[in-house]
Amino acid sequence: MFLGFESESGETINVELPLESVSVQRELGAGIRLFAYAYSPAEGLQGGDFGELARRASRGRIVGVVRDPGGREFDCPKGTITGVELLASTGRPGETGNQSHRIQIRMAGGVRPDANRQADATARWRVLRGETLQALAAKCSSAARLDRSLELILSRVRVGAPPDSDAVLIQAGVSDRELLRRLLTHSQWTQTRVPTWWPLVFTGVVNDRCESTWSVQSVSKRAHVNGRTFEGRRVRTEEMSGRYSTYLGRRVNEDSPEGEGEVACVAHRWDARAYDADAWKRWRGAALPLFVGGAEGAAVVVRTTDEFFPTGRDSSMGWNTTIETMPEDVALLHYQDCEPPHAWIGEGVVRERDARNPWLTVELPRFESADSGNLVRARLVTSYGGSDGNGGVNLVPEVGTAVALWWSGVVGAPVLAHGNVRNEVARLPAPSWNIETPWEMDISKGHVHSIGELGVDSPLTVKVNGTSVHTATEGMELEGNGGKLELKSGKVRTGRA
Fold first, then answer.
1. How far apart are CA 497 and CA 494, in angstroms?
2. Where is average pLDDT lowest: 3-17, 197-211, 262-276, 332-346?
3. pTM
4. Smallest Cα–Cα separation from 52: which of 84, 99, 23, 19?
5. CATH T-level fold of 344-420
């Protein structure tokens, strides 16, 4: 077995290392990791050297390819080199020709920093809409795909809200992966009780072409039983060959930022299996979580590790497999990586409004325009809505003006418009009212306790039951009940005899 190298552009690098072993690790909640242990001579690595390999690997530009004893590419995921570590050296210091180094090379398929993850780390600004959780998650399909059974389940979970029956999801400065993770981690907020498909986790999968990608899976055994996918996910331990043993271990969540998450695991191990290409192809594509046991008492498989090594007999390879499991109740708690919704506050420009409708169409600057990703329907907020909600104060921002927006982060909750943002100097000093369009008022009986001097600097016309009262700088007219009073130039006239 050899480990060959190539650049991410596909160029072959003339370096091959004889492998002591290579391990392929699939972990629920993480991607696919490969660990290769190799011996390298001190005088170079068949056209390269250990130092150059380490330098290029540190820049994330080297991809490892495992090859079988015949030099053919082994049916194993390619991995971006994420680390090269010198474990031990043999021979005496200063000697030449007799030294060798034992090297651990860490590779990652479907996790940082491969090309797919780097592209997905791009921050985006857009508004997403969908009637169901599946429709919203599909907007981020470049980050991860949904398991087919899960996709069907989420397509039935409606989260839409008026006015267009679409739920809104604001993506403001985060990647598709991060947005999808946030959507899935608090998607159970849309349910009245914990749904059968919760919790949901990202995990790495390998397709038929041995390419590693991200997938979203449900940890719940009941979800797979209901979706009729449980039998296809069972590991039948009696069908595994090799020496079998079990032991109690402790799994540490390496991706936890707090360095916590250590829980007990039961490990099932099969040693000294003879490598079989067909069996390996079937096994390597199995997506976690798998289950050990029957539908009533199944344990959740959270990690599988397959180790391949030369046997020293001809060109045959040995194969060891370790499966780590958790009780379902423990797994459900361990993977409930739920966080509160991420609220968003922003500013936009009104593009559509109605004098009565409580909804505005607002354009968000710097947001992507594709698929109307820069437009959002925002519900108006008022200081008082009256006794039935459709009265009170009704002031609607004008088209072309800036408004302040707020969204709670909860899927299905509306974006709220809290009123205009003043970006110009006011025409009148505060406190003041300046309404340019005709306005209406409907007020019940009231009482003014006191009022000071009221000045009017322009002509004024007041109509009471259709009858006008005119005032101007030259005089004043009062008309009502068939009579008319005109005050002008010191004369008083009445319309009755």
1. 8
2. 3-17
3. 0.75
4. 84
5. OB fold (Dihydrolipoamide Acetyltransferase, E2P) (2.40.50)
